[in-house]
Amino acid sequence: MELLERFAAGDLEAFEALFRQHQKEVYAWIVRIVRDSGIAEDLTVETFWRIHKYRARFDPAGNFRAWTRRIATNAAFDHLRKARRETELPEDLAGAGTADPAVRRETREQIKRAFFHLPAKYRLVATLALIEEEPYNKIAEAMGISAALVKMRVYRAVRILRKQLNSLGVEVGAR
Amino acid sequence: MNNEESDKKIKELLKQAISPAEHAELQRDLWPQMLRKLEEQPAAIGAVPWFDWALAAILSAILVFFPGSIPALLYHL
């Protein structure tokens, strides 16, 4: 029996083999969304727990990697929704970026704060599209929505950011 | 500055403030943590908490009695 068939049938060894094959990739995807290595580790485990829980729904002839990425994206999205009210910014990865001395530290902090307070569905697409520069169709597949909807959410995220930054006195132009 | 230029500036400012995480790698094997979670929370397929059912019932009632709320709900999905 193939590995995916054994996994779908509930074989723990097959699940462990898949876990070891895919844990790095899942972590790398999640950490790009949540931007905190500790939280990304917990969410990687949560992702595989869901994978194990819903194993009977997986078609062994299907694409395990795509299914896994979709579940990982949902787990990260659930986290962003819950964490949105927290005021602390992620520390590990939300560094200074490609810091331009012309952009003041205070301004960068305001931008980060505005960004991390975006509604989860906009923050998720904006992170992947604008910061990580992932193509719309890849984001769409991971989220289970159309590329057109991803594009619309990116547009709305930028609009919300513009409004917030203008209200904070950061000069970004058109209102 | 028009909207297009403003969007471009916002994207540039975002990149100044937040760096891509493309080189972040997993530093340890998570399998022991996974095993602990599996032991603590055995995955019960089909076990849905009662409050999820309650939420679904409330939502269904709202959609039946206030169909005008459907577009608003779809907008927020």
Question: What would you say this structure looks like, in words?
Answer:
The complex is a heterodimer of chains A (about 180) and B (about 80). Chain A is about 70% helix and about 0% strand. Chain A is built from eight helices and no strands. In chain A, helix 2 (about 10-35) runs antiparallel to helix 3 (about 35-55) and helix 6 packs across helix 8. Helix content of chain B is about 65%, strand content about 0%. With about 80 residues, chain B is mainly α. The model of chain B has no long low-confidence stretch (mean pLDDT about 85). Chain B is built from four helices and no strands. Chains A and B meet through helix 2, helix 3, helix 5, helix 6 and helix 8 of A and helix 1 and helix 2 of B.
Question: How is this fold's topology laid out?
Answer:
The complex is a heterodimer of chains A (175) and B (77).
Chain A: H1 3-8, H2 12-34, H3 37-53, H4 64-83, H5 105-116, H6 120-131, H7 136-143, H8 147-167
Helix pairs in contact in A: 2-3, 2-4, 3-4, 4-6, 6-8, 7-8
Chain B: H1 3-17, H2 31-40, H3 50-65, H4 69-76
